[in-house]
Amino acid sequence: MTIGERIKVLRKEKNLSMEDFGSVIGMGKSAVSRIENGVNGTTDQTIRSICREFGVNECWLRTGDGEMFEQTRETVLDKLCAEYDLGAEHRAIVEGFLDLTPQDRDVVLKYFHNVFSRSTSHAAQSAAVPDSEAQRIAESDEYKSLVEKNEPAEGEPFTTVG
Length: 162
Fold this sequence. Notes:
Layout: H1 3-13, H2 18-25, H3 29-36, H4 44-54, H5 58-63, H6 73-83, H7 88-99, H8 102-124, H9 131-139, H10 141-150
Helix pairs in contact: 2-3, 8-9
């Protein structure tokens, strides 16, 4: 497959007309058509523009090797949200978790283990985390610190971050 054919595949993947695709990268419909049909070649500047504007893997665009799109945090989150029908608030929670330090992630995970352990043990006597471990987590300084940081002040309603 030629670079022109890969550009056409990309354009179709993005569901764009030649005119719309060209306007994003600063070219007219006829110029896009000539590239896709192999009449004209592409410049390095055009390749860089396509990669930047559409998140395309430059190696794929030039040679056909690798994945079409760069695997950035943004694209991975976009796919995750689409696949699991996650809204903006859900995405913010995932992004917030990813932004935590590894230690804070562990605290959040321990908290969830504690919550899920209590809810499942009451409903199905499941032991995702043994009661002794859940108690240890609930009494840990890390857990208490996380709760204190996120507890609303007395009289304030609980709100989600968004």
